[in-house]
Every structure is written in structure tokens, then in C-alpha cells.
Write a structure and sequence with these properties.
The protein has helices spanning 25-35, 55-63, 114-128, 143-151; strands at residues 5-8, 14-19, 67-74, 77-86, 98-105, 133-139, 155-166, 169-179. It has 181 residues and is of the alpha+beta class. The chain binds coenzyme A. Coenzyme A binds next to strand 5, helix 3 and helix 4.
């Protein structure tokens, strides 16, 4: 995705979607700071009090052409992100064919069609950039995310038991994948 686009959410709000670059680091940190205060953080890997992401490595991550980070903006603030990072093992039989993907949106902007739109943008980029298989990991209690991924063509292909503890309860992580034609 090279240029910004504007989309209308189900509540009529217009948001701008464009690629996140290293220069967006401060805006990204403000976004994470807000997200960890949201109720929807509970069943994700993010948490309140998590250390701030390192500036240099974040900039390198966002600007790496093997990855795509896409953000949705309401005015000057990021309200949701979706990403794909190519999996790049040394073994060239596997190299670059799979990508890890994830999407997080501020609670106030969820369930309004934004997740679906962001996912379709990152998938298009993946397809055009040689990624054939997408993989996502979701806690078993994250029903909204599971519904969202399954509706978007992902299948559950595995489960990791007891990967984390949330409110004294063990979380299992479903592994979902989507093969891009
Ligand atoms: C998971 C997430 C990315 C989905 O994005 P979204 O913008 O809320 O979802 P959309 O509005 O595009 O909805 C797409 C589908 O998801 C499902 N969905 C959305 N909201 C839902 C809800 N509250 N309950 C159950 N399913 C829901 C529906 O199947 C929906 O299809 P429909 O529009 O035909 O009803 C978003 O809710 C989010 O960021 N949540 C918090 C962080 C998170 O859990 N991230 C993923 C795991 S790390």
C-alpha cells in the first residue's frame, strides 16, 4: 500500500488508512499506551505497564520492506493497526513464504468493519509480496478475534495449552492459518 485511503466505518466515522513508517514511532507509542488501558487488551499479549518498545528496533521493524504495518488514523492519532511480518528462517526452502499477522484496534472503534478492512489490505500486500501462508495466534477466550478471523477465511490448525495466565486462568492459544491463493 503506497498511498493513504479514507474509509467510512459502520457508524459513519471517516478514518484514514496508510502504511506506518519509522517516523510514526511516537504516534505508535501513544496508540499502545491507549490500547493497554482498553478492556479489549485483556485477551491479547499486550498489558498495562509493559515496557515501551525500543525506538531503534521499532523504526527498523516498521521500515523493513519484509513487513507491513498499516494504521488507521482518526485525525492525528492512530486508532488501530494491522501487521504482517514475513517469517525468515535461514533455510531458504521456507524463507518468506509465511507471515505472522495481528490486528489491534481501540475498543471504541471495534465491531465497525475496521478489522475486516485492515485485514484485507495486509492480505493483499502479502499476496503481492510472495507470502502464501498467514498465521495468527489468539487466546481461546478472545471470541471476537476468533470470530473475526474465521469469518475472514482463517482455520484453526492447532492449539498451545497454558501459554499465559489472565485473571488466574490459564490461556490456551489457538493457531490459525489462511492460505492465500
Ligand atoms: C479482533 C479485532 C481486530 C476485530 O476487528 P473489528 O473491527 O472489531 O471487527 P469487524 O467490525 O471488522 O468485524 C468483522 C467480523 O468480526 C466478528 N466480530 C466483530 N465484533 C464482534 C463481537 N463483538 N463479537 C463477536 N464477533 C465479532 C464478526 O464475525 C464480524 O463480522 P460481521 O461484520 O459480518 O458481523 C478487534 O476487535 C480488536 O482489535 N480487538 C482487540 C484486540 C484483539 O483482540 N486483537 C486480536 C488478537 S491479538
Amino acid at each position: 500500500m503506497n498511498r493513504a485511503i479514507k474509509i467510512k466505518l459502520k457508524n459513519g466515522k471517516i478514518v484514514t488508512i496508510r502504511r506506518i513508517r519509522g517516523t510514526d514511532y511516537d504516534t505508535m507509542m501513544r496508540f499502545f499506551d491507549k490500547f493497554v488501558r482498553d478492556p479489549s487488551t485483556k485477551y491479547t499479549s499486550q498489558y498495562l505497564g509493559q515496557p515501551k518498545k525500543n525506538k531503534e528496533s521499532s523504526i527498523a521493524l516498521y521500515d523493513d520492506t519484509n513487513n507491513l504495518f498499516v494504521g488507521a488514523w482518526d485525525g492525528n492519532e492512530i486508532i488501530g493497526i494491522s501487521s504482517i511480518t514475513k517469517i525468515l528462517p535461514k533455510n531458504r526452502k521456507y524463507r518468506g513464504l509465511s507471515g505472522e499477522t495481528g490486528t489491534i484496534i481501540l475498543d471504541k472503534y471495534t465491531s465497525k468493519g475496521l478489522g475486516k478492512k485492515l485485514k484485507s489490505i495486509v492480505e493483499k500486500w502479502a499476496h503481492e509480496n510472495g507470502v502464501h501462508r498467514l498465521e495468527a495466534g489468539v487466546f481461546h477466550k478472545n471470541v471476537r478475534s476468533l470470530n473475526n478471523l474465521i469469518k475472514n477465511g482463517y482455520q484453526i490448525v492447532g492449539i498451545k495449552h497454558d501459554v499465559a495466565i489472565v485473571d488466574k486462568e490459564w490461556m490456551h492459544e489457538y493457531i490459525l492459518e489462511k492460505i492465500l491463493d
